[in-house]
Design brief:
Helices cover about 75% and strands about 0% of the residues. It is mostly helical. It has a domain at about 1-30 and about 320-500: MetI-like fold, CATH 1.10.3720.
């Protein structure tokens, strides 16, 4: 076993990574115990209540709508056959490829007073110049709609999986009690998938609270916009950290509620009595209604914004393919691939060390590492800036910043934020490797790096590639952390999209937006294959 100064590398790796991942969050939280400036007093007296109120409205509205769309479509797809079902079962996750801030930009282009749809409706119905059929979306309610139609797939995916795993015996009991199909759904199926729904909604809540681009574009005051404006507008980093601490506490409260709710709503199914659910055939008006119900989320969350982006690109005469765009795209490619390889390698090493040492303690630490996904990118950025500044002053004893403002801090933020994706991939891959292989290798005196390189890594190549693809797509879309941590004059596709949209240069924002969506389709393709493989459960029920 490889050793560093007499200490096993495989035993210290996970604790060291845990300390590095934890440091930015701890730094942010410690700001609560520091001094409070006049800027804080101003925020506390005048706008803090708006941050809290708007955040609660966003979270509540988005949670309810995503629950309705996600569970409703999942129930239809799982329990019924109707025209277009095989297409909808995977197409319903397409909106995940579009980040909320891009959907916000396209919604503005579609629904503004002189947006595409209002202009078309005035021409079609010969309405007056000031008449708008579609309402203004640049407000908190427009933000609720944007988040709902791009994030509902989180609820759809987990709900669909939970519906598939329900036993026909349980549902037939409901029919014997005289319940209608809707009654079975409302009184039996829905309560039983509650833990899964809560998990999906929590992902939605995390994404909503961490967003910056969409709420900033719609001029909605939330914690993320407040943090950014306090730092860059007022030049007050300490107050920005205190706001970030409040947001972090906000997130922690939701995570605590989620864990408690899951425990209280835990249900189990006896595997010996499990029978796949029966698939009912819909016909006539019911088939049409099911078709429309599944089509609308895809239309609003994917097809309309994609169409608008293509129109912008064409109107710009496709002249976006210039030196600046190529440079920005290459920056994004290099950065995302580097972060993806480092994150995937780290997850591989940590999961292997846990397997090698068979340590419950290391496993617990690894679980905490995945919480980074729930920490908003803006909070990570604030903490990492402070961490890099501290290291510069401690290690280099110079007034010049070496680590601060470099790509090191940005890549670290990406790794912390995306580690959960890599970790889940390798955990699944490790479960498929028999412990007997490890035992056989030990008999042959193959341990540590030799065991990893010769046995485990060849068996985990698919997991490694999947992890790289997932992290790459996540990094490409990340906006808040990139805005703060990127080096001077270093733009990515997400940053370029934000800058163009902030300046109302929508035609120019089309190209980087389309590029981001294309990369975002990578995990969609992976999830599509997973959904197709799960179709066996549907077929067994027919």
């Amino acid at each position: 076993m490889y050793r560093l100064s007499g200490i096993s590398f495989w035993r210290v790796l996970t604790p060291l990574v845990f300390l590095v991942f934890l440091s930015p969050v701890v730094i942010v939280l410690f700001s609560l115990f520091g001094e409070y400036s006049e800027n804080w007093n101003h925020l506390y007296n005048f706008v803090l209540i708006d941050y809290i109120t708007n955040s609660l409205i966003l979270v509540t509205g988005v949670s309810l709508i995503t629950l309705f769309i996600g569970t409703g479509t999942a129930w239809l797809i799982t329990n019924f056959n109707f025209h277009g079902k095989r297409f909808f079962e995977w197409a319903l996750i397409l909106p995940l490829a579009i980040p909320p801030y891009i959907l916000a930009y396209t919604f503005t282009g579609l629904f503004d007073s002189y947006g595409t749809l209002n202009n078309l409706s005035r021409d079609l119905f010969q309405l007056g110049d000031g008449v708008n059929i579609f309402p203004n979306v640049r407000n908190i309610y427009g933000a609720v709609v944007v988040f709902s139609f791009t994030l509902y797939p989180y609820v759809y995916l987990v709900s669909r999986s939970a519906f598939i795993n329900q036993s026909r015996s349980m549902l037939e009991s409901g029919r014997m009690l005289g319940l209608s199909q809707f009654g079975i759904f409302y009184k039996l199926s829905l309560p039983l998938i509650r833990p899964a729904m809560i998990g999906g909604v929590m992902l939605v809540v995390m994404e909503t609270l961490s967003d910056f681009g969409a709420v900033e574009h719609f001029a909605v005051q939330t914690f993320t916009t407040g943090i950014f404006r306090t730092w860059y507008g007022m030049g007050d980093l300490n107050t920005a950290m205190q706001l970030a601490s409040m947001l972090l506490i906000f997130v922690g409260v939701f995570l605590f509620i989620e864990r408690k709710s899951r425990k209280q709503a835990a249900f189990t199914t006896n595997a010996s009595n499990f029978r796949p659910i029966q698939i009912d055939q819909l016909s006539g008006v019911y088939s049409v209604l099911a078709f429309i119900a599944c089509l609308m989320p895809i239309l609003i969350g994917f097809l309309l914004p994609i169409s608008e982006l293509l129109v912008w690109a064409i109107n710009y005469n496709l002249s976006f393919f210039n030196e600046k765009f190529i440079k920005t795209a290459m920056n994004t490619v290099y950065l995302s691939i580097a972060a993806a390889i480092l994150c995937s390698t780290l997850a591989l090493l940590i999961n292997f060390s846990i397997r090698l040492n068979k340590s419950r303690f290391l496993n617990i630490l690894n679980s905490f590492l995945s919480i980074g996904y729930a920490v908003p990118g803006l909070i990570l950025a604030v903490g990492i800036v402070q961490l890099m500044t501290f290291l510069d002053r401690s290690l280099f004893l110079s007034s010049n910043f070496i680590l601060t403002g470099s790509l090191i801090g940005l890549i670290l933020a990406y790794i912390i934020k995306s580690y959960a994706l890599s970790n889940s991939t390798f955990e699944s891959g490790m479960e498929n490797i028999s412990p007997r292989i490890d035992d056989s290798a030990r008999v042959l005196k193959s341990t540590g790096w030799n065991l990893l390189g010769r046995i485990h890594f060849p068996l985990l190549k698919t997991s490694f590639l999947t992890s790289i693809l997932l992290v790459t797509s996540e990094v490409v879309k990340e906006l808040p952390a990139t805005l703060i941590l990127r080096p001077f004059n270093f733009d990515t596709l997400a940053v370029s999209t934000y800058i163009y949209a902030a300046e109302e240069r929508m035609f120019e924002a089309a190209a980087p937006s389309i590029a981001i969506i294309i990369v975002g389709l990578i995990p969609i393709i992976i999830l599509t294959k997973m959904i197709r493989s799960s179709r066996l459960g549907d077929n067994l029920g027919q």
